[in-house]
Amino acid sequence: MRMFQLLRLAAQAEALRWKRTGRGYAIQAVLGAVAAVFALMLVIMLHVAALIWLARGRDPAVAAVIVAAVDLVLAGILGWLAARHAEDPVALEAQRVRDDALRQVGDTTARAAMVLPLLRSQSAKKGLVGAALTAAVVGLMARR
């Protein structure tokens, strides 16, 4: 019964980890989209600034260049936030719980695999050899 509880716990931890990881990717995508909008606004403002500068005196163009510079700074900050990969502490804890639960399931299964040949065998010597071989096989499989 404990093995099923551990497997259920591992599945719940994995679901939580995937949910939190997906949430992080969604936030990164939104920040990237906002950065793209500000970059587009930068290009538009640079065009407007060039037109104003060519059409009139320098004061309106300087104002448009300042606005474009602010857009550039905002696009840079939002792009940096979207590009960084911050680890979610809840997702990391969920992964640790999943790994612990699966390791305990493996330990429980290995113990059962070692004890069963002893219980099934006709002689103690034959049962000990079977248990040793089973333990060796389970140990090799657990290392993979």
From TrEMBL:
It comes from the Bacteria. Keywords: Membrane, Transmembrane, Transmembrane helix. The chain crosses the membrane at residues 25-54, 61-83. InterPro entries: Phage_holin_3_6. This is Phage holin family protein. It comes from Paracraurococcus lichenis.
